[in-house]
Design brief:
mainly alpha, 7 helices
């Protein structure tokens, strides 16, 4: 999918060191899917709040995609970091990024088809609601790192056309 606003948004915000650090920490320590964290914030920026059914759909598809494709590759890439020649490791990184893009294309297509009505609430409130529902679906308690993530993303300069 060539025109994917979610992917463009994710590249922009994930390039910011605080956002990158927080997403990695939430992924490594709590099993969060970075693509869903970023999706929750991207939708929040548009005033869209996930319904419980939508978040359940997102988590179901995310878990299947991650177990079918992403997690084994990520584990291999991390193992290769210490042992593989740099060019091989970089190829593994590029391939993992391609899989991340594929997942985001699927997420973006889902939201392009979904019937949603933007709320007249702040980005911060919408994003926090989405993240809270996501962690509820994972049966994890609200975490201060999620608030930090929303704060870090709100200071990212807007992209052109955002």
């Amino acid at each position: 999918m060539a025109d994917n606003a979610l992917w463009q948004y994710s590249l922009l915000v994930y390039s910011q060191p605080p956002v990158h650090r927080l997403c990695q920490k939430l992924q490594d320590e709590y099993g969060a899917d970075v693509n869903l964290l970023l999706s929750a914030c991207w939708l929040g920026k548009r005033g869209i709040v996930w319904s419980p059914e939508q978040v359940a759909d997102m988590v179901k598809h995310s878990q299947a995609f991650r177990s079918d494709y992403l997690l084994q590759l990520r584990a291999l890439r991390r193992k290769m970091k210490q042992h593989a020649p740099p060019n091989i490791y970089q190829e593994a990184q590029r391939f993992e990024m391609a899989l991340e893009r594929w997942q985001q294309d699927d997420i973006y297509a889902y939201w392009q088809k979904a019937t949603v009505s933007p709320k007249k609430q702040s980005f911060s409130l919408c994003a926090q609601t989405n993240l809270h529902r996501y962690f509820d679906q994972l049966e994890l308690a609200w975490n201060g790192l999620l608030s930090e993530l929303v704060e870090a993303i709100t200071v990212v300069p807007p992209a052109e056309g955002d």
